[in-house]
User: Fold this.
Amino acid sequence: MMFPVVISQQITGDHLATIDLLLPADLLWFSGHFPVCPILPGVAQLNWVMHYVNELLGPLPVMKSIDVVKFQRPLMPEDKVTLVLNWERTKHKLMFKYLVHGEITASSGKISLCQ
Assistant:
C-alpha cells in the first residue's frame, strides 16, 4: 500500500484542504526505512502533498521548486496525522503541514508550482 488511510477530509473553497490520515504499519514506505525504528520518508510526505492537492483542489501545475521544507518530528507507523494544504493561486505557492494530534507540527513546507 502506497497511500495512508483517509479518515476524513474537508475542502474549503478552491484553495484549502484538510485531510485526516492514518499511517498503517504495512505502508510500503516504512519497509526498509530504518528496520528497527521505521519512519515515513520525507519524499513520501511530498508525494502525498502533490497527490492530495491534485485530487482535492483540482489539477495544479507541476512542482517547480521546494522553497522551504522542515521535518520537525518523525511520522511513524500507526500515527494519525492531519495534512493541511493551502494553495495560494495568485502566487503559485502551495503550503502544507502535517500535524500530529491536530496541533504538533511534524513537517511543513512551501512549494512553488510552474505558471
